[in-house]
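Need tokens for this chain, all 447 residues.
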Amino acid sequence: MSAARDVAYRCVMAVTDDDAYANLVMPGLIDQARLDGRDAAFATELAYGALRMRGLYDAIIGKASKRDPESLDPEVRAALWIGAHQVLAMRVPPHAAVSETVDTVRRERGQGAAKFANAIMRRVTEKTADAWVAVVAPGTSRSSRAVRYSHPEWVVAELERSLAADGRAGEIDALLEADNTAARVTLAARPGLADRDDLASETGGEPGLLSPWAVGLPSGRPGDVEAVADGRAAVQDEGSQVAAGALVAARDLAAGERWLDLCAGPGGKAALLGAIAAEAGSHLDALELHPHRAELVRRSVRAVPGRAVSVHVGDAREWGEAGAYQRIVLDAPCSGIGALRRRPESRWRRSPEDLTELATLQRELLASAERLLAPGGVLAYITCSPVLSETREVVADSALRQIDAREAVASLTGTAVTDWGAGPHVQMWPHAHGTDAMFVALLERPA
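Here are the structure tokens for all 447 residues:
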């Protein structure tokens, strides 16, 4: 079998068998196989597409085999996902996809399993993707949408609720389709360390549409970019940049301010804010619960000049001096449902029960942030999730006054306040803004 297909298979197995993360496993597998740019991109699309669309492919495999896909050997199931993705979503000749899938199954599970895989793949090739969807996911019910767009049904339900609350009822198909479209790689040129236009010129990229620091890359490996290698820039979704920047745009900057990133790992927002703090004559404390993630924060902020950032290890619910900070960013642990396009396996790892546990933690962290905020200070509550129980409902319980985040975001992005919904929070969407579904609310403590 081809090296690229072997890398894709090993990535899928690492994710499904070992609970690995595709975005962490894949670069090492590509390096080990010494794949070039084209083959590396092919392997990544195979693995990510198979993981992302496994819900639809399971429905098709179940129909073709008349068996519950969960009853299949994991190796066979993974190989069939990859084979189905080649046939139904990529321009791979059917005979090549069938042959490679059968070879993989033969190697992993023997001749008997290979014969089974051959029969199933041949049935899969008998219909186009649209024809299969008409068979396994007809109509417009929520359950059909869940299969068609390969999302757990409970996630579809939560997204429908969130869209309706944001005045976007009827946009669910566009959102689910956007979730299944790979996000482009976006860099953040950290202020005072890298110039956005220079970075765009050096990389062949283009300035972002929203963030004043964003550069969208057309292709390539961002780690090969010199500014990324030395920490002057980093991969960071444009929505994440805007959410962090809203904290800065909410108030005029003043020298000597103390800022806090309450849940700092892995450090993207801390480095961006730290670079701005260094220019403004302020100081950022970056707090992280887990020591290994605190090391990631230290690495992320390594290029920030002077002593503008201090990294600490501790529990945000118990840490710090009351009223000590003029600006706080709380990028709260969340379900990550807003970043499904970026993390192909994440939609299958969450459950509705997780939302209850997360909402409790989010409220505890917000209460701690409120305690640490100085009179006259501003707090940005951020999640990479649009789910109402993680966003609006958490902020609604806050003792602080919510201010209009739309004004800060509009000022930062050069857009109109009315572009950002009814407010006072801002909810970004993949299908509408080209970002992850970032939520940001701004809260203030009266002076």
